[in-house]
Design brief:
Length: 272
C-alpha cells in the first residue's frame, strides 16, 4: 500500500503520454464566450472553468489516435430515454444559460409530436414570479440533431452550443478536450480527486455538454463494475458539482467501459 501513490502517478503519466502528441503540448477548452469562467459550483460554467493560460486555444485540433484499447463506438451524451427531446432542450438551456445560471425558475413540459419533430414547451416555474408564463416553444429534431423555436420573431435569439455549433446546424466536427489537467479548475475535478482518483483528460461530447473524464485507474470504492448502492455517495457528490448534469468516467488503460452518472445519483456501467 505504501507504493500506491507512486503507482497512481506513474499510471497518470503513462496515460497522458499515450494520448498526447508530446508531453509539452496541451489542450484547453474555453468557455462559450472565449474567456475563463468564474462562476460558483452548480452553474453552467462548471465544465469549462480553468486557470488563465498564455497558451493558444488548441481545442479545434482533432483527437490524437491511441495504441490503448479503443471502444467500438464513441460515448454518446446519454439523453434520458424516457423523453430524449425534453432532455435535449434541458441540456441546451442549461449550457447556453438561456434562463440564467440554472434552471430553477423554469419547467420543461413533456415533449409532444409536431410533424417530424418533437415540441417542448418551457414555462416559468410555479415557485417563481410570473408562474406559468410561456418562455419558449422548442422544436427538436432528434434524428438530425437540430433545435429551433416555433416562431423566431417572438423568441430570444438562439445561442450556440458550447462546441460553437449553431442550434439549427450540424454539431462540431471535433471533440473538445482538456489535456493540461493541472490548469482545469472545476468542482467536478475536486470531487474526483477527493476520492483518490487521478484525472488525466477531459473530453466533451454531445455538442460540448457531456463530459467524459479519463482517470488513471479505478481506486477505492470506485471500482470496475461496482454496484449502484456502493457508488451512490460518489454519484451524489458528482451531481452537486455539475448542477445536475450527467457525465461519464473512463479508465485510461481501457476505454471500452464507461461509468455513466445520471442525476440525481444514478449510475450504471456501459460497454462502448
Amino acid at each position: 500500500m505504501k507504493h500506491l501513490p507512486a503507482l497512481m502517478v506513474a499510471c497518470a503519466a503513462l496515460a497522458a503520454a499515450a494520448w498526447s502528441c508530446g508531453c509539452t503540448k496541451s489542450h484547453d477548452v474555453p468557455d462559450a464566450g472565449g474567456a475563463a469562467a468564474s462562476s460558483s459550483p452548480g452553474s453552467a460554467d462548471w465544465l469549462t472553468r480553468r486557470a488563465p493560460s498564455a497558451h493558444p486555444d488548441l481545442s479545434s485540433r482533432p483527437v490524437p489516435s491511441s495504441t490503448l484499447p479503443v471502444p467500438g463506438r464513441p460515448p454518446d451524451w446519454d439523453l434520458d430515454s424516457d423523453d430524449p427531446a425534453k432532455d435535449y432542450v434541458r441540456r441546451y438551456a442549461f449550457f447556453t444559460k438561456r434562463y440564467g445560471d440554472n434552471l430553477d425558475c423554469v419547467e420543461l413540459g413533456v415533449s409532444q409530436q409536431a410533424g417530424d419533430r418533437r415540441r417542448v414547451e418551457v414555462k416559468t416555474a410555479s415557485t417563481c414570479p410570473g408562474a406559468g408564463t410561456q418562455r419558449d416553444v422548442f422544436l427538436v429534431d432528434l434524428a438530425g440533431d437540430r433545435l429551433a423555436v416555433d416562431d423566431p420573431s417572438k423568441r430570444n435569439p438562439m445561442a450556440r452550443w458550447p462546441d460553437g455549433s449553431a442550434a439549427d446546424g450540424p454539431p462540431g466536427d471535433v471533440i473538445r478536450e482538456v489535456y493540461r489537467i493541472n490548469d482545469w479548475k472545476s468542482p467536478l475535478k475536486d470531487v474526483i480527486q477527493r476520492h483518490s482518483l487521478v484525472p488525466v483528460r477531459l473530453q466533451s461530447y454531445g455538442r460540448g455538454t457531456y463530459p467524459v473524464v479519463s482517470i488513471a485507474g479505478w481506486h477505492d470504492v470506485v471500482q470496475l463494475d461496482a454496484p449502484p448502492d456502493v457508488l451512490r455517495p460518489f454519484a451524489e457528490e458528482l451531481c452537486r458539482a455539475t448542477g445536475g448534469m450527467p457525465l461519464g468516467i473512463l479508465a485510461a488503460v481501457d476505454r471500452t467501459r464507461i461509468l455513466r452518472v445520471r442525476c440525481p445519483a444514478a449510475t450504471f456501467w456501459d460497454k462502448l
